[in-house]
Amino acid sequence: MAKFAANLGMMFNEVPFIERFSRAANAGFKGVECQFPYQEPAEKLADLLKKHQLTQVLFNMPAGDWELGDRGIACLPGREKAFVEGVHKALEYALALDCKQVHVMAGKWDKNFTPEQQHEAYISNIQYAADVMAEYDIHVLIEPINIRDMPDYFLTTQRKAELLLELINRKNVFIQLDLYHCQIMEGDLLRTIERLWGKFSHIQIASVPERHEPDRGEVNYFWLFRQLDEMGYQGWIGCEYYPVGHTEEGLGWLRKAKQ
Asked: Is 143 in the active site?
């Protein structure tokens, strides 16, 4: 049976971030993920995870200055120092939270550089992050994000992610397979899952096109959950969606998925 992780950056947003751990546990989740945990001390978050018997499944490395438009800096030449600092900040949190997966946001295309320069910077930075994390058996994840939600993003398709995996050439680098983004950009979800088998270590879900609860929209997630069970998927499924109303009121899908 699938293991579901609540995304605390999006779910339970009726309360402050620090209170979402207890809400997730009370709702029946055993795992949690988030975009950026850095607003709270790592030790405080570790205590919350232990108190509520939760697994920290995933979080993002620092992604630059979000307010100024950064969406990661891995593909940006000249930002290597900040990237390295972010790797070690993420490692500090990963060790404190006993988290075995860290997602690296790629960043956006920048007309000040050639595509070749940005590809070179990206590959080099991901290799550095992977080598640092490998010493602690931590996976580094790369995620294609659709161009509607994040225009000008560097990495937008699973095909490109596959190519980058080959060029990065590190055993602890995997795809973060967000089926919401994949449906918007490429579709053909089951065949994509089959093709990428062994190349991804984490799945995320949300309805398409609105990014709400997975029992809405155009994707039959319950059917896909059964396929993943039959295929032997052992990883987590991150629930990275914006609830339509109060989070708990929309969790009927979770009870159905566990039946």
From this structure: yes
